Amino acid sequence: MRNIHDDVHVVQAxxxxxxxGARRVVDGVDLMVRAGxxxxxxxxxxxxxxxxxxxxxxxxRLSEGTVRVLxxxxxxxxxxxxxxxxxxxxxxxxxxxxxxxLRVMARYAGVPMxxxxxxxxxxxxxxxxxxxxxxxxxxxxxxxxVAAALLKDPKLLILDEPSNGLxxxxxxxxxxxxxxxGTGERTVLLSSHQLxxxxxxxxxxxxxxxxxxxxxxxxxxxxxxGQLMVRADPLPRAREVAERVLGxxxxxxxxxxxxLRTAPHRAAVVNRALVAADVAVSELRxxxxxxxxxxxxxxxxxxxxxxxxxx
Length: 311
Ligand code: ATP
Known about the structure:
Bound molecules: adenosine-5'-triphosphate
């Protein structure tokens, strides 16, 4: 169960801008992350995701705009105390065990030692906790990085491309983990260039490309309404009927087939009207837009990653 609070924003960014030389690598981004949600920041390589996350953490200075993280300016210790992050590589000691790495961090952060075993359990590394970090698979290393980010039991967990470079099994495990971590009151903000990932685990998604936020919403909102595809005879009569039922702006003909922009549940109404008008319907099916379709429309397509593709 997620407890999402629509009216409480853990991250509030308005007009967030970062200028390097003459380039606005992040350009007027508005970002509102609600308490309790898993928010996916989706964009191709170089879109400005890492820079944005680093700004939120106070690691990069903002050029323009206003940002509050847990009610404080980025980098303010009062806000940072509630934030756990995996943004750079986790920076762990190769010759120490997973557990000892976390103990070092716990001591440094003033976290009780019992928390180390709790977070190892959370990321499913208890069995391998005594092994040296250097012997871990990439997926295990990433999970230990997440465990480190969880030590302070943060309200907000920020993960930059947590599945990057992982094999399919590692990716699946990371997704399961993030879904688990995103339950209850904890908020998760992650970046990804993988559509399948955000589609599977995020409550809301912000699409960023070339430093600009192109769209924001739930996956369902971004997909928009579905389409119905209808093969019918005679076609002109079918078109007339569909226009009467749905309005002309929702009806088009593509390759001799009717395309209706409407919610899938209207299929029965459309079908009844066509049959009542003596139109023979040989095929009627729902065409779902995928998040991938939306993403390519928004970002212009060329050179963008495909679903599940590694960079
Ligand atoms: P990726 O998935 O490749 O990491 P990203 O969406 O995280 O992409 P950023 O790392 O935020 O993108 O980079 C956005 C742009 O800003 C890139 O063109 C990058 O070259 C540029 N950039 C990042 N840091 C600096 C810097 N310190 N100086 C100059 N340009 C920078």
